[in-house]
Amino acid sequence: MTTLRSEFLQTLQARGYIHQCTDLDGLDALAAAGGLTAYVGYDATADSLHVGHLVSIMMLRRLQLCGGRPIVLMGGGTTKVGDPSGKDETRQLLGDEQIADNIAEIRSSFEHFVDFAADRAIQVNNADWLDELRYIPLLRDVGRHFTVNRMLTFDSVRLRLEREQPLTFLEFNYMILQAYDFLELSRRHGCRLQMGGSDQWGNIVNGMELGRRVDGTELFGLTTPLITTASGQKMGKTAAGAVWLSPKRLSHYDYYQYWRNSDDADVGRFLKLFTDLPLGEIERLDALEGRELNEAKKVLAFEATKLCRGEAAAAEAADTARRTFEEGVVDAQLPTLEVAAERLEAGVPLYLLLAEAGLCSSNGEARRLIKGGGARVNDEKVEDETALIRPDRLLPEGVVKISAGRKKHALVRPL
Fold it and tell me: Would you name the residues annotated as active-site residues?
């Protein structure tokens, strides 16, 4: 293992963020000198980022805590093109107004992780320069530094072609535009480092080489490993869908429960990556076994939720979980599915409600859950997959509590 001098890279190495670096020793010397500026790019394809983006967001946070300046680059321009990396199909293209709305929503999540006051961190939009580019000058000044031979070797292109999936010329240009972003940020803000997931390695190297060829500037690239759970699932993906950072997309309770339900083998690693707890405390928590490990999971859930949603939200979610699991009460903070009263009067199949509430990913999964004895209504086991939920199941609180296993709950409320 390389002995590092800079606090920033020491922190990243100790917590497990580093996968590849274009020149680790050179970057370490630059970071040790102080004042390092680095960026990560995010396309605005939705009005929220999700847990899959969280590793790179935390790297920006680590940079700022170590005295550097993070740049959040929003892809107002590149979102109009669509990043083909890791995609089998062409993205649906969004209009300018939707992209602007998405960027505004995403900003509110970033404000929990980095401090934008007094330009300690900045958010920029690559539409500011990409929208102004003229096609022929771009081809002449930038395009000549890219060979089609090499572009065809990048995973984002090669995998799409190998699977005989269409790759539009628009998408093929994405890597050139991302490389140009690095050049512009170097010129405008003195940015010397681009960070991102391991699937962005080729794009990052392109930008680094473009800066060297055009301006003679030494730039650096750093990627994180692909984070998967102990079960092999990609980080941020669940049966019910993406784990969104925005509370408009996912409740505080559901966000908390995502972390609370982490696999035993993931607790220590996730504490390092997704919380600010000292490494010594993390080692203590990771050493717990048996039922005591549940306390470590509660700490992980609280600390991760506190970072993303704030301490009050984390406390609220933790209290809801405690009341639900330890006291068995119906808490109003549980996710709530509203159902038309006349529909409930007629009787709604339990399997439909489990799927509609997001407790199961499909009707088929919900039927199998019921048949296997994993479904509950008002904390009572239901094994009849044709069971109907009617108003006579309403609790005094005016809701029906439905559960998938012992950890996933929702309320059904008539409208």
Answer: 45, 50, 53, 87, 91, 178, 199, 234, 237-238
**Per the confidence metrics, is the pTM higher than 0.85?**
no
Cα angle vertex 59, ends 58, 61, to 5°?
A: 60
Beta partners for residue 39, in sequence order: 71, 194
| CA 155 distance to own-chain centroid | 21
Would you say 263 and 229 are in contact if contact means Cβ atoms under 8 Å apart? yes
The helix-helix angle for 267-274 and 54-65 (nearest 10°) equals 50
CA 37 – CA 67 distance, rounded (Å): 10
User: Is the model more confident about 37 or about 156?
Assistant: 37
Instruction: Specify whether the CB–CB gap between 223 and 19 falls below 8 A.
Output: yes
Question: Which residues neighbour 253 within 8 Å (Cβ) at sequence distance 6 or greater?
Answer: 316, 317, 320, 321, 333, 334, 335
Pairing mode, if any, of strands 37-42 and 193-197? parallel
Task: Work out the number of other CB atoms within 10 angstroms of the CB of residue 240.
Answer: 18
Residues 206-225 pLDDT 10s = 999 999 999 999 999 999 99
